[in-house]
Amino acid sequence: MAAESKTKYDRQLRIWGDQGQTALEKASICLLNCGPTGSEALKNLVLGGVGSITVVDGTKVEKHDLGNNFLVDEASLGQSKAKCVCAFLQELNDAVKAKFVEESPEALIERNPSFFSPFTLVIATQLLEISLLKLDKICRQSNVMLLVARSYGLTGLVRICLKEHDVVESKPEHFVDDLRLHNPWPELKEFAKTMDLNVTDPVVHKHIPYIVILIHIAEKWADGHGGCLPTTRQEKKEFKDLIKGYMINTDEENYKEAIESSYKVSLPHGISSQLRQIINDNNAVEVNSASSDFWILVAALKEFIENEGAGEPPLEGSIPDMTSLTEYYISLQRIYQAKFESDCLAIEHRVRTILKRIGRDPDSISRAFIKNFCKNTRKLTMEYSNTILDIYIQENEGVRIEDNVVEASDDACNEVIYAAASVVRCIRSLNFCLVSILSPPNGYSLQVCRYRPLEDELIYPAISELQKYMTDEDFSFSVSFYILLRAVDRFTANYNRFPGLFDKNANTLLKLYSEMEEDISRLKTIAVGVLSDSGLHGSTLAEDLINEMCRFGGAEIHPVAAFIGGVASQEAIKLITKQFVPLNGTLVFNGIDQKSQVLAV
Amino acid sequence: MANSFSEPARWRDLDKLLARCGNIVGPGFEPSPQLRQEIGEFARVLVVGAGGLGCELLKDLALSGFPNIDVIDMDTIEISNLNRQFLFRLQDVGKSKAEVAAKRVMERVSGVNITPHFCRIEEKEIDFYNDFNIIVLGLDSIEARSYINSVACSFLEYDSDDNPIPETIKPMVDGGTEGFKGHARVILPGMTPCFECNIWLFPPQVKFPLCTLAETPRTPAHCIEYAHLIKWDEVHSGKTFDPDDPEHMQWVYTEAVKRAELFGIAGVTYSLTQGVVKNIIPAIASTNAIISASCALEALKIVSGCSKTLSNYMTYNGVEGTHIKVTEFVREKDCLVCGPGTRIDLDTSTTVSQFIEILGEHPKLLLSKASITHRGNNIYMQSPPILEEMTRSNLQQPLYDLMGKVPKDTVHVSGMAENNGKKSSSLRKLCVLFKGIAAADVATQMDTAGNV
């Protein structure tokens, strides 16, 4: 990377590193509709240095755009909005390739689905459900990530629509270091043995690293407890007291650290249930020439855990800072690093063998990529997002979800989906939603079905979850807004305008008042319909919120749009860099008291 | 100019909120087609900081219908700002952030009037801050937040029952970000906790023990801090280290590399050296956009009443999934900054210079080099020299006389306060009582205090 770019991107390179930056620079992003929500989302990504952008919008700049969109100005009036927004974005960062298409996104979705396939990510803003349904299908078919963003008065939402997303570097903030104190390997044990906790030199005594202290004392404990390590609260307390007994002075930081970290000797052996889910995924069990690099690595990881690893994943190889003499600390670092290297080598060997077996070039996955994967295996997570199409499956006849999910043409499909949705709920607590139904009811061909879910459940009732939201004070605004946003789309489909948005003839207050009353009652009726379609018969929404939705009249308020666009761009970065964990559900923005919520059931 | 700004067609969307009535609104909301124009005429907003948050805030506020904005920032533009501070271009490097940011927003949003102030926040007279209806903070330092907070709280007056007087409340909205995380909060001094009430939300920075740096370094950061904090002074006796001087930074880096080699420690890079020495906080455009948008929206709601407001602290965390949480913190009853004032009992004969000594020794204040004002009058000023000279003769006079012989009143003092061994400029509000003059008054006060 050029020195100037290094300096320019310094503050973000400290977060996602060169690897993340390279991924961004390779990404091509398509924005649908460049009102303030879309323009702001793209602005943040252009600043960060994404590879290329394409702005799609069929409208001309009007007066009202000057009141909420910073990316157009007075000179833009009457011109193509896409062109003006694109020109300003280009000014922000000349390293980005910026293009625009002067066409309505709805028309493009309808007429030219293949338009979307070259992109890494599509950000769809201010689109109605009916278009989103089609777009979601198009993006899934061509493996393009889709982010949906919507601003509406003081509310709005952001959701991710993906087939599957794998996070290689989740970079969790609170994650226990991989020290293997519960299961030290021979070299580490040997090193610990070279040190004596009863050493008489006080300087050495207070500089024995806590890793060594804990290995010594854990061994002593195990000797006196039939080979077991402390598990109960009482035992853990006794273990701490045992450590305390070795202190010769109360200010020995290394012993204090040992006491604080003593729980690390009691960590369970083996891998987490989440990692187990991943390595047992069919994609890992049955790798073939069509498998992605990620799944080949998972397959190699699975083999490693079952063989060399003896049930454990590869060691992460780094240790936190701790009180120690320099030489002890450096020696420890080397021991951990060496074990990491040898684990990596074993996995690399397995990757190469698998590649050969499936007929691919054994060197087609780089060593650096394998190493990065190994470093992060303990933190692997997977997110399965729901397809928008699934949500509305009931509303369409003869539904066919592409790519190994459902083919159905009558009522029975509801049962299939219902069955799938209930399984999803069962295992969602593992943050991993993969449903395999081998013998679907009524013989419909359903192999693997991936979901993640609030919306499914709005229609295929997980009524209990929804009712919980409806009655939980913290969630009530958000879930109401969520339902009302859907109601607004139905209203708009019926009347060809947003509720509360009147033509200019309604200029007398009296007329405005009566039209408003009428819209409020229409929207209420539609919202009741959405509720009952979601299985929430008899639930009601607060009148005040229905009024608010009509008051908003489809307004795009700049700070709300900047918030929604900001969230969309942050999620885009997580998806593109495959670092950090993306939004898990639908974020509903609540601009009234800022108690926004992610609805994920 | 004002006409083009207030044109109704332009504000079609915003007017939905401002001209239409609603049931979930703030106290005193009076929707009307003229409300936006009224806000334009009376509302003055101050944005403190023209960096990552500041640039966004200026744009957001201009497009929220505020035509009169001031912005204050002492910094100049650097290349590393360009990944998020979208009002700046490569050719702006070295220029004032406040000036360039104001100019860019005015160019794009016609009719908006932004006045830049290219200076330190402490350089402005306290009264400068009183001219604004609301202060929006886009800062990255605790000290600067603390200072602005103390200024805004100094305008707050209490009635005789110790209830805040509404007209004296100076609302603040504060934002902050770090990587994928951030916060936005609303501070209504006297009503909601002020910055100082919840100062514990900002944990103190971790410092390495000097003996680790000198004797048992283990990490690259230890080597860097050794070069920066120990070796620099050994070699450059008397010369202050300047983190913005590339030669100084290069020297620290080279020394850190040498030390790391000596101990067999890997991982010292130039980038890490800068990060450790300057305590660089990672920053990205999207998080700044999210947090600024929240702050601007709150400012719009506070000024117009068009909806409820955040009560009172929102955190955003996008590291593992996306989590937004609102917490309602409570005021610190005895807050030195937003409370009715630290009580100080004096004799009517206490002179100003004795009073200054008392301030330095007062355990709750520890305020040195104090300047003193009473109801806008300068009693004694440490600087500038001309004011010092003008007020010097007051030093030997009794404070009681200079305050117009009132038995009890509020006095503002500013100076250097000591906090955790670190000195920083601060402004404190005092409730001065003169002994023996208001015996009855004092007795009542004591009773109330006892009941709290």
From TrEMBL, chain A:
Coiled coil: none annotated. It holds the Pfam family ThiF. The keyword Nucleotide-binding applies. Residues 9-593 form the THIF-type NAD/FAD binding fold domain. Pathway: Protein modification; protein neddylation. One of its GO terms (molecular function) is NEDD8 activating enzyme activity. It comes from the Eukaryota. GO terms for biological process: protein neddylation. SUPFAM superfamilies: Activating enzymes of the ubiquitin-like proteins. GO terms for cellular component: cytoplasm; nucleus. Keywords: Nucleotide-binding, Nucleus, Ubl conjugation pathway. It is found in: Nucleus. InterPro entries: APP-BP1 (IPR030667), ThiF/MoeB/HesA (IPR045886), ThiF_NAD_FAD-bd (IPR000594), Ubiquitin-activating_enz (IPR035985). Belongs to the ubiquitin-activating E1 family. ULA1 subfamily. Regulatory subunit of the dimeric E1 enzyme. E1 activates RUB1/NEDD8 by first adenylating its C-terminal glycine residue with ATP, thereafter linking this residue to the side chain of the catalytic cysteine, yielding a RUB1-ECR1 thioester and free AMP. E1 finally transfers RUB1 to the catalytic cysteine of RCE1. This is NEDD8-activating enzyme E1 regulatory subunit. It comes from Dendrobium chrysotoxum.
From TrEMBL, chain B:
It is an enzyme of class 6 (ligase). Pfam families: E2_bind, ThiF. Gene3D superfamilies: NAD(P)-binding Rossmann-like Domain (3.40.50.720), Ubiquitin activating enzymes (Uba3). Chain: B, domain 2 (1.10.10.520), Ubiquitin-like 2 activating enzyme e1b. Chain: B, domain 3 (3.10.290.20). InterPro entries: E2-binding (IPR014929), ThiF/MoeB/HesA (IPR045886), ThiF_NAD_FAD-bd (IPR000594), Ub_act_enz_dom_a_sf (IPR023318), Uba3_N (IPR030468), Ubiquitin-activating_enz (IPR035985), UBQ-activ_enz_E1_Cys_AS (IPR033127). The active site is at C211 (glycyl thioester intermediate). Residues 344-435 form the E2 binding domain. It comes from the Eukaryota. Its EC number is 6.2.1.64. It catalyses: ATP + [NEDD8 protein] + [E1 NEDD8-activating enzyme]-L-cysteine = AMP + diphosphate + [E1 NEDD8-activating enzyme]-S-[NEDD8 protein]-yl-L-cysteine. Coiled coil: none annotated. GO terms for biological process: protein neddylation. Keywords: ATP-binding, Ligase, Nucleotide-binding, Ubl conjugation pathway. One of its GO terms (molecular function) is ATP binding. Catalytic subunit of the dimeric E1 enzyme, which activates NEDD8. Belongs to the ubiquitin-activating E1 family. UBA3 subfamily. PANTHER family: NEDD8-ACTIVATING ENZYME E1 CATALYTIC SUBUNIT, UBIQUITIN-ACTIVATING ENZYME E1. This is NEDD8-activating enzyme E1 catalytic subunit.
